[in-house]
Amino acid sequence: HGPNGDEVIVQHISQHGKTWPYWFRRMAGNINNLGNYTLSLQAVLNESGVNSFAGKALPSHTIKFSVTEGEAEKFSVCMLEGPFRIGAPFNIPLEFQDEFGHVTKPYTKHKPQLDASGLEMSYKDVVVKSSQLIIKDIVALGTVPTSAGKSFNMVIKIKDLEESSQTLKIRMLPGPPHKLTVSPTEEIEIENGSDA
After folding, report:
1. Does the pLDDT of residue 83 top 70, yes or no?
2. 45 and 58 Cβ atoms separated by less than 8 Å
3. b or e along 112-129 (b: 16 or more beta carbons within 10 Å of the residue's beta carbon)?
4. Is the N or the C terminus of the chain less surrounded, counting Cβ atoms within 10 Å?
5. CA neighbours within 13 Å on the CB side: how many for 83?
6. What pLDDT, on the 0 to 100 scale, is given for residue 153?
7. HSE of 80, CA atoms in CB hemisphere, 13 A
8. CA–CA separation, 105 vs 68, rounded Å?
9. pLDDT over 70 (residue 28)
10. 174 upstream amide cis, omega within 30 of 0
11. How far is Cα 90 from Cα 123, in angstroms, rounded to an integer?
12. Mean pLDDT in the chain?
């Protein structure tokens, strides 16, 4: 069933031999796309494909079936929205695929583990939105030496998947200011208009 009506993906005529029954070819790799399909079995007289004899139609049978996505076996990280700051919450969306690369529905039972050398990582929750699993309110704690930030390698692991981890490079900027330090520490008196 294509967008422009029914289309034939593959067609075989199988012969009956004296020493073997009907022989059907394996159709591996032909039906990998998701969608609705119809398998039509039609008896024919010979290789010409004639499907009637003496004015009567020869036996036929039709089987309708659907190909749907399988269980999640791997995942990928979707587009990230930065900038990312130490101590400020952010989200990471994940997309799950089956063994053939079809997008499949994630489940909240998938509990990601986040690790990044030099950072302490935590998150509040995971939420399913459409075909994505969103890791919500991730907070990274650690030291970033300059206002330009620092890059970290973050590993996201999800148990029970065939391909259970993804590594991404993430640039963390310093968090919002929470303390003001004034130097020198001794008291200075300044008069408006003076050169002090």
Report:
1. yes
2. yes
3. bebebeebebebeebeee
4. C
5. 14
6. 95
7. 17
8. 11
9. no
10. no
11. 9
12. 84
